[in-house]
Write a structure and sequence with these properties.
The chain has 51 residues and is mostly helical. The protein has one domain. Helices cover 49% and strands 8% of the residues. The protein has a two-stranded parallel sheet with strand order 1-2. The longest helix is centred in the last third of the chain and has 16 residues.
Length: 51
């Protein structure tokens, strides 16, 4: 930015975060702590079930 302050925002998905990065945002999040834990839990259950 003109004043050296990074504009940032919270994003619910990695795809939306990518769009915001492409728009020039320098500070983006992908999910909050609960969302990240849910994604990890889903991946672990999927792996445990064989696929």
């Amino acid at each position: 930015s003109k004043r050296g302050i990074a504009a940032g925002l919270h994003n619910g998905t990695a795809a939306y975060a990518r769009r915001m990065i492409d728009m020039g945002f320098k500070l983006v999040t992908i999910a909050n702590d609960v969302g990240l834990m849910m994604m990890a839990a889903r991946a672990a259950v999927k792996e445990a079930r064989g696929g």
